[in-house]
Amino acid sequence: MAGEPEEAFAAAEDTVAIADDADNPAAASYACLAYGWAYRDTDPVAAYEALSKGLAIADASGNRQMKTAIAVLLSRIAASQGSPDDAFAYLSLTIHHYYDSGSYAVLHSPLAILAAYLDRLGHFEAAATISAFAATPLTRAGFPEIDATIANLRCALGDEAYETFARAGMNMTNSAMATYALDQIDAARSELLSTNESA
User: Fold this and answer.
1) For residue range 118-172, what is the model confidence (pLDDT) as tens digits?
2) What pLDDT, in 10s, does the model give residues 32-88?
3) Nearest to 76 by CA among 120, 114, 31
4) Are residues 57 and 122 part of one domain?
5) In terms of C-beta density within 10 A (0-12 exposed, 13-18 middle, 19 or more buried), how is residue 147 classed?
6) pLDDT of residue 5
7) Of 20, 62, 117, 189, which is most buried with the most CB atoms under 10 A?
8) 12 CB contacts (<8 Å, ≥6 apart)?
């Protein structure tokens, strides 16, 4: 996030091995998260593997905080690698957990990933409604694709229509946005399932 990828790669290189030797499951899952974050764009397959390992550790130890943080990154990689079932499952999990725990500041991260994914799938109105709500300084730093998503949505919908949908989203409460996002996940999953069954 600080724009120093080479330092991140060097620091994260041995974290999965550290996780294997760690007695503390929180430290082990965090080590896997660090590796996955560093390599999410340059080696998404290795990042996904490390994150899946970290998720299993967090789940087995009952650490919902780490499980949710890891699932955010897994959703992003699954979406970029064309695994919609996994992407939507992880997004749904993270939105539920962050909303249920009252962690509204970090709720924006899965929403930014969801907006980008819905845009990619052609669900422009839903993506536009979520995008401005999700575009905080933290999400812009951690998930820069939100800016490209907003630019694409403005192009696809036109500036006026985009602003109308974005304003509607910005006026939603955290509760309303979480509910809306989960509804859009269900709708997009149903559409993909229907398309796959027809193929």
Assistant:
1) 999 999 999 999 999 999 999 998 899 999 999 999 999 999 999 999 999 999 9
2) 998 888 888 889 999 999 999 999 999 999 999 999 999 999 999 999 887 888 999
3) 114
4) no
5) middle
6) 57
7) 117
8) 34, 35, 37, 38, 39
Residue 152: partners with Cβ closer than 8 Å, 6 or more residues away: 119
> Which residue type does 36 have?
G
Question: Which position has the token pair 């998404």?
Answer: 44
Q: Both 175 and 94 in a single domain?
A: yes
Q: Are residues 101 and 151 in the same domain?
A: yes
Number of domains forming the structure of the chain? 2
Statement: residue 6 has pLDDT above 80:
no
- Residues, the chain: 199
